[in-house]
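Input record (Table S2, row 238):
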Amino acid sequence: MTNSLRWKRILLKLSGEALMGSQAFGIDPAIVQRIAKEIADAVALGAQVGVVVGGGNIFRGVAVAAKGGNRVTGDHMGMLATIMNSLTLADALRRLKVNARVLSAVAVPSICETFSQRVADRYMEDGDVIVFAGGTGNPFFTTDSGAALRAAEMKCDAFLKGTQVDGVYSEDPKVNPEAERYETLGYEEVISRNLKVMDTTAIALARDNSIPVIVFSIHSPGALVSVLQETGTYTVVG
Ligand code: UDP
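Output record (uridine-5'-diphosphate complex):
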């Protein structure tokens, strides 16, 4: 079964907003459970999965800075938000009998393990799902960059960016239904044309480590497995 997967060890990046559902803020448990099922199905096929969830559904540091507050404190709060999201996703995975572990870049040892590359690598080899929390552990970064960093450290075969749409389009497909979906794009093209795949630091890290970035919709059921089995629609940046 494993051989049928195009990418075996993957880093899945989801924005915090993916956990919100139709709410304006926070976490919709039903959505979290549905996403956990997507991951569990991929694990059942032999995928080794690391996940990074953002924190934008709860808190973003720039929001503090925009109101004249301390950006570093705001970013610390944002990183704590990613830990909350990671804890709930790991719980949802455990409900599906998947061994899930939260490894945080920010040490909160009474709540979850602290990230270490060697330990994470061992867990992934064992088939445990690792939810990497706390971003990079540093302010002024994003969870996209944290996810690209983990993908490089864990030698992932691919970085899967779950978004609202099933790839990168020439224009916003909600505005122009005629917009073209790219099958493939180069890293440089994404950077030079400022295509909104993820921030430049994250794309550059993926490029420098030759990790393909797969942009797909996390909202269509079965999407994660269909990307891994090359039956879905998505854009490959590489
Ligand atoms: N953050 C940070 N350093 C990191 C990752 C995240 O300071 O390495 C903070 C930052 O304030 C950010 C917030 O955590 O706004 C939530 O992360 P992000 O905006 O990337 O979440 P997403 O947009 O993916 O939900």
